[in-house]
Protein 1
Amino acid sequence: MSAPAPFRNDPSLITPPGAEEGIAWRWTGIPSLMAVREAAVNARKFLKRQGLMEEDLNAWELVLTEAANNVVLHMPAERAGDSWNLQLIVTPKDVTATLTDHSPGFEWPDKVDLPDVDSESGRGLYIIKEMTSSRHYLRGPQENVLTLVRARQASGRITNADNVREPRTEVFTAEEKKELEATLDDMTEELGAAYESLSAIFRFSSESHRITDLSDFTSTLLHHLGTVTQSDCGVIRLAEEEGTFRTLAVMGGVPSPDTLDDGDFDRLEQAAIASGQDQWIEEGTLPARARIKSGLVHPFYEGGILMGTVSLGRHRLTDPMRAGDVNVVHTFSEFLAQHILRRRHEEAAQRASAVKRELELAASIQRSLLPRSMPSIPGLQLSAHCESAMDVGGDFYSVLPWGDTGVFFMMADVMGKGVGASMMAAVTRSVLRSVPQLYEDPGLVLQQTAKFLFEDLDRLEMFVTAVVGTMDLPSGEVRVASAGHCPVLIAMPDGEVYEIPACGPPLGLMEEIHYPSTSMRFPAGSRMLVFTDGLTDPRDGRGAFADHTELAHWLKESARSAGPADDLHEALLHRLRLNSATAPLADDQTFILLHRLETPTAP
């Protein structure tokens, strides 16, 4: 067995001319402002561990933030989930940062100068230029690569390849120092305000999910805006229907009327709404009582619809709001518009759910009012039908045995729809069924019912039309009383049709009223039709009749050829359902058919 080979150390690394050894750090994230801030903070921590001085740390945090913000700015919404990469390489001489992204990119300008104070664009590129030694931007069809290099320095002037000059004794002249310090002060102040604004947006976004009340939400938003924009007072109003406005939140003791005529910002609010543009507040623009020297009125919209106005005023500052502050106002207003829409959608869904539950309850009540089957009376055939125009209506009917050889019938139509109408129908039905001792005189039944129901119907501002009656087979007599209801139609065996009209007003209009009963022969072979006004509703584009006269004519013609009550029932349904595929019902359709047979049949 051979001896193992002797251990040897790896040879020392030989660094050829032009090569450097360094330490690398890499970060990957999505293109969002939150991710940018996270990357910049962690990059600073890494560089600090590599021994960079505070001056370099501040410069790199600022440069990386501005460079990564460009990635976010140029990333289209459909690619917001794509990642971007940041790589840092630290050597004893310098730091190299490489940012790679997949946005469409932009054209790097040949010359980068400090933009105007009011301009929002160009500042980031100027900061990058002034604080790095070299910059290379490669824009490609698949990805973009930005490489930035900054020399590590202990102190003194930042090395910039664009500003290389002949060596001299003083790094800066006094004038250059003053100009550079002023520039850096402006950029530091603006950057600090931008970070404060971003922090306020992130903080508000986090808090907004826990705020359910719209007033609390708006008040919190207004105070955030006041802090960011250094405003002392403000008001947020919500635009409602018919051009009215509702004050949602106030700050700093601003008058808060629900009109645009009595507030501190009223004139500029009106101008902002009329023009659809921001209105700037200057000293003397608003009434003296307001003591507002500067500020902004911003109308905010969603989908082209005016949602409201945000007005902010400052008592001490006379300078106009910076462009960054205005952007924050716009951003927060979008938060508010989206929250208002979300609340409206939630409230609409809640209302729809409540209406659905109400309709289900009302439909259940209405179904319980209709008989499951008709009574079996020798010598009499009965059939009935009830169809609601909506999920639930106010019609009901009932046919009860009366004695051994007759029936008592009732039909009513309660004004209105929904649970209220169905509950009143239930009460009316209960009252009508609670006085069987009065059935022999239908007029007394209605008179007693009118007295029982008047107080409830009057309080609810409702009324009920009703018809009740008896049919006695041995005597062949029909007795009917009607409270504002449709006429009862009786087709005689010889083909003639007679009407028993209403003999009094609907229930609920008068407490004490006399309803007379009308008697009529009902010989064998006769047919009686009791119905509601849904059969003669002129709004119905289906097969409804123009009026009760047309219905009476139809009954006269149909009764001659019809067989049992079921045949007439089907013929009437066929007529009522004409055009049913294209025309919805305008009103509930309910009817009862009674057919006295020539020869009594066993039950």
Note: Confidence is low (pLDDT under 50) at residues 1-9, 155-170.
Protein 2
Amino acid sequence: MNTLTLEQLNSLPLAEAVQRLDGLYEHSPWIVETALQRRPFVSLAAFKHGMVQVVAAAGREPQLALLRAHPELAGKAMVDQSLTAESSNEQSKAGLTHCTPAEFDEIQRLNAEYNARFGFPFILAVRGPRGMGLSKAEIIATLERRVQGHPDFELAECLRNVHRIAEIRLNDKFGYYPTEGHQVWDWQEALAQHTDAAYAGTGQLTVTYLTDAHLACARQIQANMLAAGCDSATIDAVGNVVGRYESDSYPRIFDVSQGPISSKTLLTGSHYDTVRNGGKYDGRLGIYVPLACVQALKAQGRRLPYALEVVAFAEEEGQRYKATFLGSGALTGDFDPAWLDQTDADGVSMRDAMARAGLDVNAIGAIRRNPAEYQGFVEVHIEQGPVLNALDIPLGVVTSINASVRYVGEITGMASHAGTTPMGQRRDAAGLAGRTLRHSRWRLGRHRGAAASAPWLHQCGARALHLFAGFACSVGCAARCTGGQSTHRTAPDLRAAWSAPQPHPHHASQRGAQRARMAATLGSGGHRLGCAPAPHAQWRGARRHEAAHHPAAGHVVCARPQLRHQPQPAGVHHQRRHATRGRCV
């Protein structure tokens, strides 16, 4: 098959171009024809997005018709051999043409259930994320999960899969194979074999600071950097893995007598530790995409006018010790020596863990970077929100950051029987927690770009539906805002929401009070390059504040934190983590 080129896409007569692109969307040539009227396209990706926009603008009924034009997986059309050539190839790659009788019956049953529930067939890009084909087990598991979905979600999910099918077919027509992307994928899959001992054999990825798995990751990343073509790859005093691909002024022979390199360096990278049961690509994508660039430059024998420094930051997530950004903080001189005396859940101090890993705590200060020697910092990161999905685009540029302050609170209620206690006399801790969190969201909603969320709510004590617990209800609450200074302004409003009286909605004849204690606070502002520096928030102490309210009203009593604000100096690693959390395009 003759492959198409971008020049042909833009220059062929409309009818011929539509004919050459036939089959991208199942029995729906109108999508390609409408999109081609927007020629010329600067890239194949721009054409893909143009077709997505055509479908989005078409409205619900044409969208449903598009979905209904697709055959069922392992359905009647496959049995009758009446599939289009594209669909037949895809179902064959996934092994659906060779189902066992039991597999075929299961897929047929689920297809019928799905169609009856939603009114359109189940659609899945069965060639998978790499175009090689999903297994039958993966297809059946996905169908079992999605048949329980919400109709609106499933409509959107089917449309996303339709566009993915069209993308794979378009790549075939243009002979495009994402070699570098697959290399990045393979690197990360290989790195994901290392997980902390407690999670080994569970299928969950957890890599916390300076565990055996963490140290194994560092060694593997170092080896990958050297294999990709970095001129050097070292592990520094906090466990960062630093690879350098020198500039075009780099000596062609390794003669240190020729002196240091004069051009400035572009810094890039991300973290390789994870949260508990984390993802394989969070953070690590920002390490391996630059390595793919280094590998391509090395293969072409090219050097850039500046050095490229790729840093795999050792720690960001704060999972083992109550300190975050240990890796990037050391590069900006923001590593607090007091952290070394912190202990983990097993009583191991950070100082001992670093010594056990062969790291020299006395050398931490020496790895601080001089901002004058750097052009800036760039990071590739997985989006952890729905913005790009909603826009149907694969890539975006960060325009603002999210800084946060976090609180953990505890509310004590009064034990009671749910069936015999009148509504006006109930002292349910979870009820007050819900009202407090709702009030928190309302207060922060008055600030532009601010929001409050409740990551978790856990009521201890009662384990039956007919009881109210008399014990503590633990609540987590976080305030987030785009920009650290904004978060600095909204944090007092969140504390006020927790310390203000929370009246019961019923008559004032009720007695007693519900008490809450702010148990702890965690928080750090985003302080990243190109953004307004934000303060770190730290405990300096807490004092108990008792507020007298009308005896008929429930109220909370909180240990109100006194925060000491430390504006951070401008530094190299500005715009690291929080630039990857809040995303606008």
Note: Residues 151-174 form the longest helix (24 residues).
Protein 3
Amino acid sequence: MPLSYQSSKDMEKAISLSLERSTVYKINPNITQAPENAKLLQGELQELIQSHSHFYQVAIEEIHSLYDIIKNTGYCLTLAESSGYILYTMGDTEITEELNKRNYTTGYRWSEMDMGTCDISLVLIEKKPILLTSEKMYAHFSSDISSACAPIFDETNTLIGTISLSGYTPNMHIHSLGLVCQTAKNISSKLTKQSEIKELQTRYNYLNALLETSSKGIITINLQEKIQKANQKALTIFNLPPNYQETKLSSILNLDLSPILKQETNFLNHEININNILYFLDIVPIIEEEKTIGAIIRLVDKQEFVLQNMEVTNLKAHVTFDSIIGNSPIIQEALEIAKVAASSNAPLLLNGEKGVGKKLFAQAIHNMSKRKDKPFVTLSCSEIPSELLEKELFGYEEESNHRFQRGIHFGKLEQANQGTLYIDEIANLPYGLQSEILKAMQTGHIHRVGSSVPIPSDVQFICSTSKDLKQEVSNNNFRQDLLYKISMLSITIPPVRERKEDIPLLIDYFLKKFGNLSYEKHLNLKMKTLLSEYPWYENVYQIEKVIERAVHLADGKPLKADFFDLADKSETCSTLPLLNTNPLNLESLEKETIKQSIIKFNGNMSHCAKALGISRPTLYRKIEKYHIKIEGITLNS
């Protein structure tokens, strides 16, 4: 609230300026009452009061309180709004009747342009309290009446009105000004307090709405563990009655909460089974002024949590059958079988060389199945070290430093619950784990590493391999019973070289994807022949990378044959015996291809890796894997 005048001199100056303005406005100083054109009709007055209802009610209460003190002492109290209209008067009969004769009453406006210098107009202009004696007022009829008037400000420090204490001049003194100043201050304080309460109520309503619409069950308890507040989700989870207040939560959870409340520590990631539904339970103390006053409990449906985070954690399949490119009879046959498999819950095995699109098939099958709105989770057995695969599959639990908090890490099987688990290159799954995954398929339950608690696991298994699993069984690398289980339904996805009519379609797709180009318009006959006749040993994956490289090298210019970097590779591959092109004999083919390439380039690993379209470290790993040694040739960089 603005301060009062610094000195009586400042107050006199403000009055003097107002008197000068009153003269400029050509107001008749001999008027005996406020003009009728400054009066509101009864309906207009009620409308104005209604628009100021909050301020009006608070001010009336304070006016009544003050009048109880000054009653029968010859005073009248007047409330005006920010335009100068009087909204309310209250006072002793004699002074009130005298003021009414002068239209100093409800419905009349007492602005400077209407009445010249007066208590209400001066305070509205200066925004400071003032004691205006009768001789200082502009209108001569005020010669016997003086007024003490103070501004009223709302919670935003905006001037919203005035309060005046009027009486015959002999009765007025400086204490009269103190009374109205204190009353104006009381009104402003109440408005501020009510605004704060209203804001708190609004925040509470927002918070309550947020809690009620939350998919999490939320409960607050006091130090006696009694429920203070529960949202609708929590009421449903625990089947609580409407009069749930004062119910002890510990009796429902069958959990001792006192150590948590006493030690002021969080209790997180506790798994709890309520009516055969798994939830994660968090308990966090509510601390006020460094003291625990209660706790907030949060229950999250485990499966709902996984589903809500499908996009964030990449647990969603984006490919459909329409996304898989190919019109050849052999690929169309594979797609038809896959569509039939999508209606089954039986485990499915996808056979095929690397790069043929086994994961695309898996995603398309998932998106056509009844599980399409559930998670699609991928486990790549060839990319994860074998010693980590068990935890990656089944998850694990670890003890934290605090005895009430455990670290729970979800495995792929839990993430995929009610959805699909795609196990890529299952032949690389360690032999010991194969029995565990078979048990999960048969029982529908798993155990996290470090826990003996069984966890339901409703999963559709889709497995893939580029190896001959029957041969792996013969070599004692793969379990016969697991192979039988996962191959009840089996699909072989053909390599690109067996569906050459699809190569232009694939190339056209990637040209559009990487450069908005087309097979027909941007490739000459030489390039088309080169790309169509190349054997594509890494299949669709290799086509994608070759086209991406060519478009990048072209950088908006016409494509050239050497951008595709296939001449040497084509020559190398054309000299190789095709042995057996069955996907199940891929390792033999790969080994022979590498040997022939090493011979062609006389051990130059850089040239050899470039011709094969792989990196030198990858080439070295494959040489070590296949124990390749060629007499008379020394490998060099």
Note: The chain has a mean pLDDT of 85.
